[in-house]
Inverse folding.
């Protein structure tokens, strides 16, 4: 791979490009705030070397293997574990070579942008990644992983990652977070409270999860009131361990306050196994109201990620489980669905609700107008399929005029692959610099204002938006 062009992803018009590069230069070295992601806290607790380049860069990243699967590459051949324990490829070099053979598939996608950044900026690899260079590049990275600077904690320090949030089930012991806290290391790794497995009545293991939650809090959860108290207890525990946010992966953003008696009746039908989909839908809406209420009391920032048909591919879900690249966008309506929640809590300046969407048509039609009015509502950045050069640019163009950048929360990387974090943030800073340069070039804003906005997008908005 030839040296990466310093002007990559900027408009080719010389004046525009010059402004974009100036703005980018002012923020490229700012600390990274990573307030929402899925990295494994075990990495930072144990602080052991990653075993090989494949386990570092390919195995955790469903952005990579979803596209490979679409071209006929089997997940077994990529070493993805099967739920039934049947054999999968274990040789990391074979998996790496298979990835290299198909790397051409990622041209023009954000995955290539991230990997090219990692190869050159992190490992100083000059060759273009291909099947012919795969072994040499593998060996270069493998040698680097044997050095102290590539231990997980040192990776955070080296790339100036100021804080990183993991995403953790409501019943999680957070034992690895406790080890990190006790280590005396200056790095900040904090949990995020995600209760989906107990608030979604349609979860296949819901009754088992309720029993487990009861064991964690030390009492039977045989009433809705006891269930709510258990969630409040767990939120307090997470907050005591450093959490500043919750996250809710709901199918719909529908919200409704149920009478206490009706919430109890639905909860009991769930325990008895006599539940309808209508019950589950209304219960989910009520639980969003409960979570918002709790956030007004404990100060945890509330995130919702609706509009996804999760695990769309039944065969993959059956054989490999969740989060294997088969989460597909669906259309979502927000204005009516969030009406109850925003009218009850949205005027409270102490409450923060960050809403994400995969339905881009919603940015201009509903979400930007809502965020441009309600003090509590902020827009999460372009996510999943929209976390790309064009997707991030569309997000800015579709929301800024109506909501202002100051009703967004900057950028978060939402990744499971550790070294993609600095790559993703660099790409975001480049895209935002290019967008702001367009406003300067057309005299919509002046350069000084653009510098202020650039810093906000790169650092300040995420830090304040997530109470970090």
């Amino acid at each position: 791979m030839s040296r990466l062009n310093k002007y990559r992803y900027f408009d080719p018009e010389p004046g525009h490009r010059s402004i974009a590069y100036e703005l980018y230069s002012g923020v490229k070295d700012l600390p990274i705030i990573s307030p929402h992601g899925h990295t494994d806290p075990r990495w930072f607790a144990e602080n052991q070397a990653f075993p090989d380049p494949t386990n570092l860069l390919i195995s955790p990243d469903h952005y990579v293997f979803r596209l490979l699967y679409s071209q006929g590459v089997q997940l077994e051949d990529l070493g993805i574990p099967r739920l039934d324990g049947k054999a999968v490829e274990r040789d990391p070099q074979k998996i790496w070579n298979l990835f290299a053979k198909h790397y051409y598939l990622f041209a023009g996608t954000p995955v290539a942008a991230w990997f090219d950044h990692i190869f050159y900026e992190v490992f100083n690899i000059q060759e273009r990644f291909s099947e012919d260079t795969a072994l040499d590049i593998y060996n270069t990275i493998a040698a680097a992983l044997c050095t102290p600077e590539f231990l997980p904690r040192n990776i955070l320090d080296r790339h100036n990652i100021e804080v990183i949030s993991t995403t953790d089930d409501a019943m999680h012991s957070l034992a690895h977070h406790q080890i990190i806290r006790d280590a005396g290391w200056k790095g900040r790794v904090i949990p995020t409270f995600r209760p989906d497995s107990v608030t979604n009545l349609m979860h296949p293991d819901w009754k088992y999860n309720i029993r487990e939650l009861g064991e964690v809090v030390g009492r039977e959860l045989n009433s809705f009131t006891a269930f709510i108290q258990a969630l409040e207890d767990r939120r307090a525990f997470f907050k005591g361990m450093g959490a500043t946010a919750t996250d809710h992966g709901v199918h719909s953003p529908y919200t409704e306050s149920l009478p206490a008696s009706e919430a109890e009746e639905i909860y009991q039908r769930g325990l008895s196994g006599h539940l309808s989909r209508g019950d589950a839908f209304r219960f989910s809406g009520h639980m969003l109201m409960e979570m918002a209420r709790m956030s007004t009391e404990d100060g945890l920032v509330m995130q919702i990620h609706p509009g996804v048909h999760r695990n769309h591919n039944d065969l993959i879900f059956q054989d490999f489980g969740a989060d294997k690249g088969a989460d597909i966008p669906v259309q979502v309506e927000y204005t009516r669905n969030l009406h109850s929640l925003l009218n009850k809590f949205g005027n409270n300046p102490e409450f923060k609700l960050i809403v994400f969407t995969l339905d881009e048509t919603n940015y201009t039609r509903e979400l930007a107008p809502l965020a441009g009015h309600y003090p509590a509502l902020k827009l999460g950045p372009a996510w999943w399929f929209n976390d790309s050069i064009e997707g991030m640019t569309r997000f800015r163009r579709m929301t800024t005029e109506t909501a202002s950048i100051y009703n967004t929360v900057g950028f978060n990387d939402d990744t499971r692959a550790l070294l993609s974090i600095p790559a993703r943030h660099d790409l975001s800073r480049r895209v935002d610099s290019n967008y702001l340069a367009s406003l300067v070039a057309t005299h919509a804003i002046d350069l000084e204002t653009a510098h202020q906005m650039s810093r906000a997008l790169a650092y300040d908005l995420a830090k304040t938006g997530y109470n970090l």
Summary: The first strand starts at residue 32 and ends at 34. The domain at 50-149 is CATH 1.10.2020.10 (uronate isomerase, domain 2, chain A).
